[in-house]
Amino acid sequence: MTPETMKLLAIGLATGIGMIGPALGLGMIGFSALQGIARNPEAAGPIQTNMILVAALTEAVAIYVLVIAIILAFVV
Q1: Nearest Cα to 55, choosing from 24, 14, 76?
Q2: Which of 10, 43, 61, 75 has the fewest CB atoms lying closer than 10 Å?
Q3: Residue 75 dihedral angles phi and psi, to the nearest 5°
Q4: What is the mean pLDDT of the chain?
Q5: Which stretches of the chain are DSSP H helices?
Q6: What 8-state DSSP symbol labels residue 42?
Q7: Considering just the CA atoms, what is the radius of gyration of the chain in Å?
Q8: Treating both helix axes as pointing N-terminal to C-terminal, what angle do 44-74 and 3-39 enclose, rounded to 10 degrees?
Q9: What is the Cα–Cα distance from 26 to 51, expressed in whole angstroms?
Q10: Is the full-model pTM beyond 0.90?
């Protein structure tokens, strides 16, 4: 295996493993929000507002992983 191959493999593994957390987090956020709205429909507005805020913060982690992968691809 060439060093270039190993670099691409490392980038792929880092990105794949790094994206698992945000993906699971977004799934759990959506599930919990829908469950909360189903139990208390009157609170749908505040629940949805909080869900969007937390989902955006969770997505930020995925964006950080993507930035690191791009840096590894072009710098290392």
Answers
A1: 24
A2: 75
A3: -100, -50
A4: 94
A5: 3-39, 44-74
A6: G
A7: 18
A8: 180
A9: 9
A10: no
Token pair in block for residue 32: 């919990």
Q: Say which amino acid occupies 20.
A: I
Integer Cα distance of 20 and 50 in angstroms: 22
Chain-centre distance of CA 18, in angstroms? 8
Six-digit token pair at 19?
């994206």
| Nearest residue to 26 (alpha-carbon basis) of 58, 49, 2, 61 | 58
**Distance in angstroms (rounded) separating the CA atoms of residues 74 and 27:** 31
CA 29 – CA 26 distance, rounded (Å): 5
Q: Which residue, chain included where needed, has tokens 């997505």?
A: 59
